[in-house]
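Hey, resending since the last one bounced:
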Amino acid sequence: MKHYPPEFKADAVALYQSRPGATIKSVAGDLGVNTETLRNWIRAAEGRRSGSHSTSSTSRATGPAESMSLEAENAARRKQNPELRQEREILRRAAKYFAGEPNW
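The structure tokens again:
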């Protein structure tokens, strides 16, 4: 059993995701790894990514259930945006205060 460095795994997943028409089999063949090995790396990366935002170029949603989950995630992000903007403004003001800038 071969052991691949994490950088290689991440690069392999990124390569697969950057080629919209590519199959796992073709990318695995190009890299010289087993198809199932690459498939497992992709699944693991998608599991880690579920907590972060995903873009349409890396998303491979095909069914209505996956589409609905992406819509729900987008709605949650939109709801979170005002709070994040407020936090950023507070941090900006605090940085000005501690830098000694009198203008708010």
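Residues 62-104 form one domain.

Sorry for the duplicate.
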